[in-house]
Amino acid sequence: MFNFNNRHFISLAVLFVAAPVFAQNGNFDPLRLRAGFGQAAVNGFTGGSVSFSERFGSRDRNNNQCLGFGDTNPDHIMVLENDLAYLKLRVNSNRNDTTLVIQSLNNGTLRCGDDTGPNPDASIEDFNVPAGTYNVWVGSVEPGQRWNYRLSASEN
After folding, report:
1. CA distance 77 to 52
2. CB atoms within 10 A of CB 96
3. Which helix (H) or strand (E) holds 98?
4. What is the C-alpha separation between 33 and 101, in angstroms, rounded?
5. Are 48 and 95 in contact (CB under 8 A)?
6. How far is CA 97 from CA 2, 63, 119, 143, in A?
């Protein structure tokens, strides 16, 4: 039988709360980008029942809602070899209602995206994106919905 006193319990609790974000294997192809890449794209499909709002919290660093459902593992690992002045990620699933979550492995920063104007496919635009490794999830608004998609990245 384990004999934990309060000091050990608090140490374990801090360890779990303050644990860094680790790279996982992506479900689909990675994105490796460097300044001047222009455009790049990878394919995958949505699916899963993990609630992004429960897993990541309801809002990202820009106060955008983190909506949708996806897999436990990220769909793609994105590596930015350089800082980028501008980055846009856009999902094309033939106008299905997709969502997008990007999590920095450097510091845990979240970026969440939903509809692109009148198009229900998700996108995220950001400025001054630091070099590093990012987990990327493409989700659906309802759990378990499986839609093929193309995830495009552009720097203009």
Report:
1. 17
2. 18
3. strand 98-104
4. 18
5. no
6. 48, 20, 8, 12
Tens-binned pLDDT, residue by residue, of the chain (156 aa): 434 344 433 333 333 333 345 557 999 999 999 999 999 999 999 999 999 999 999 999 999 999 999 999 999 999 999 999 999 999 999 999 999 999 999 999 999 999 988 999 999 999 999 999 999 999 999 999 999 999 999 998
Whole-angstrom Cα distance, residue 45 to residue 73?
A: 13
CB atoms < 10 A from the CB of 59, how many?
Answer: 13
- DSSP label of 65: B
Q: Distances from the Cα of 123 to the Cαs of 24, 76, 87, in angstroms? A: 22, 15, 11
- Spell out the residues 6+ positions from residue 103 whose beta carbon is closer than 8 angstroms to its own: 21, 56, 74, 109, 110, 134, 135, 136, 137
Pairing state between β 31-33 and 76-80 = parallel
User: Which residues is 51 bridged to in the sheet?
Assistant: 69
Mark residue 47 as left, alpha or beta (left: phi above 0; alpha: psi -120 to 50; beta: remaining): left
Q: Edge-to-edge, what's the strand order for the sheet holding 119-129?
A: 39-45, 148-154, 84-92, 119-129, 115-116
